[in-house]
Amino acid sequence: MRHATQHADVATAELDTALRGGPFHVALRAAIAARGLPLQRVQHHLSRHGVKVGVTSLSYWQQGARRPQRPESLRAVRALEEILQLPDESLIRLLAEADERSVTGRPAARSYRSLIEASDVLERLQAELGWSLDGGLHTLGHHERVRIGGRRELASRESHHIVRAHRDGVDRFVAVHHGDPGAAPQRMTVRALENCRTGRVRWDEETGVLVAELLFDTRLRTGETFLFRYGVEDGTAGPSREYVRGFGFAGGQYALQVRFDAAVLPVRCHRFTQHSPAAPRSGRQQLPLSGLHRCVHLVEPRVRPGIVGIGWDWE
Fold first, then answer.
1. In this structure, are strands 268-274 and 306-313 parallel, antiparallel, or unpaired?
2. 59-102 pLDDT, tens per residue?
3. Rounded to an integer, what distance in angstroms lies between the CA atom of residue 151 and that of residue 106?
4. Whole-model pTM over 0.85
5. CATH annotation of 114-313
6. What is the distance between the alpha carbons of residues 113 and 181, in angstroms, rounded to a whole number?
7. Nearest-angstrom CA–CA distance, 5 and 239
8. The CATH number of 2-105 is which of 1.10.260, 1.10.287, 1.10.10, 1.10.357?
9. pLDDT tens-digit readout, 201-222
10. Cis upstream peptide for 23 (omega within 30°)
């Protein structure tokens, strides 16, 4: 009995500390632990409050892999404060503080509007195409070339994939493109360039997310490799300040090259990494801009789950 009481006291102390200083995901995890509720029970309580949130989303929230931002998700957070017997606005406040830090701590950028904001949209669009998280393919290599145009806009990108099937019958890949703030995905064009053809395309105007089905000319068997190449013509948003790529799984080599128009070169460029969209950026390293080729690049010999990208300053 004494051991259980001590454990409860420790959990309560950890919760109090997390609610004061955050971050949000640590406070949420501490609150759930202090109440001793499995995520399935939390989900059940939310449904009784008229809010639908998946167990996977709850798990991502408490891990810091995603952060609730959509109106329905914020309703869930307010309901969680009641369900977990927390002070009013305690979790919402931590979310607001995190948003303020992200605005003041880094320049307005090509956002992903961080993976977090678009994650639910992306899941919905992929589900419409019947696409699972990994699609039966392991990435052995992904080489990406991004072109920044004369208006400083993200003009286009091209991706060259080398994949291996880990189940029989795989005959397609679903590509994701996330435009800069203000992008119009309905005006973008997806081009199948090598060993594939364009299938269904879906998009979301609010977040600028576009997903496109790339159909192979063969059905892969387990262990078979395949190479294909596609491009996205964008050019629909304002000035671009970074390009990021997120990885849900460990994989092979990733190379990113960003090429700038000769008339509008940035004053400096750098690379960076993040363990998750909610984590601070790290691994910042200046990248030299080649005057001859007007480009910068990075190479990750073996990617790990998380985010890697290149950012640049115009002045």
1. antiparallel
2. 888 888 777 866 678 888 889 999 999 888 888 888 766 654 44
3. 22
4. no
5. 2.60.40
6. 8
7. 57
8. 1.10.260
9. 999 888 889 999 999 999 999 9
10. yes
